[in-house]
Amino acid sequence: MASRMGVSPAGLLLAAGEGSRLGRPKALLELDGERLVDRGVRTLRDGGCSPVLVVAGAAPLEVIGAVVVPNPDWHTGMGSSLRAGLAALPPGCPAVVVALVDQPLVGPEAVRRLIEAYEAGARVAVATYEGRRRNPVLIAAEHVEAVAEAARGDAGARVFLREHPELVTPVPCADVAAPDDIDIPADLEAFNRRHAR
């Protein structure tokens, strides 16, 4: 899927955390025999993003089909990972879809819907579930710098979204995705039980 300019939005997967409550980096966890980082990259790519960037930190990553962006400041929180990823976007990138590595039930259709909203004129599109804003989030190029400046600690893009509600287009995704995340070992066990092939 290409934008109105003929260039696809990029995909940005935040995968730098150490998974302190889980006991290991979430990016390396496997669900249905696939690492979460690979699953996230596939979701963004199949949803229409190109290129796809992965921000790495606690664990060094090699990912087929993605550009790995190291974040030496990963321990300071998600904000630094978002800033590192946005700074690495290629010149001329019209928009970026930001996703989190620990939400494996967000699939390509949710990404496609955000890109379709962008194609229809949205400048910031946010996936919603039962009316609640979650991830992924699409940011048009003209807002990337402001989003990066607002990203601090673990807030990511939330501060920018809260300060600029007039820019946000909600995109309902509850029928095709779920924002459930994996934070503790019991979450992973539950996911594997529910979604084992």
Short description:
The chain is of the alpha/beta class and 197 residues long. It has helices at residues 36-46, 78-87, 108-119, 141-150, 158-163, 185-195, and strands at residues 10-14, 30-31, 34-35, 52-56, 67-70, 95-100, 124-129, 132-140, 168-172.
What distinguishing features does this structure have?
single chain, about 200 residues, alpha/beta, Spore Coat Polysaccharide Biosynthesis Protein SpsA, Chain A, 7-stranded mixed beta sheet, two-stranded antiparallel sheet, 9 strands, about 30% helix, globular
What does this structure look like?
The protein has helices spanning 36-46, 78-87, 108-119, 141-150, 158-163, 185-195; strands at 10-14, 30-31, 34-35, 52-56, 67-70, 95-100, 124-129, 132-140, 168-172. With 197 residues, the protein is α/β, with parallel strands linked by helices. The protein has one domain (10-195): Spore Coat Polysaccharide Biosynthesis Protein SpsA, Chain A, CATH 3.90.550. The strands form two sheets. It has a seven-stranded mixed β-sheet with strand order 5-4-1-6-8-7-9, with helices on both faces. The protein has a two-stranded antiparallel ribbon with strand order 2-3. The chain is globular, with a radius of gyration of 15 Å.
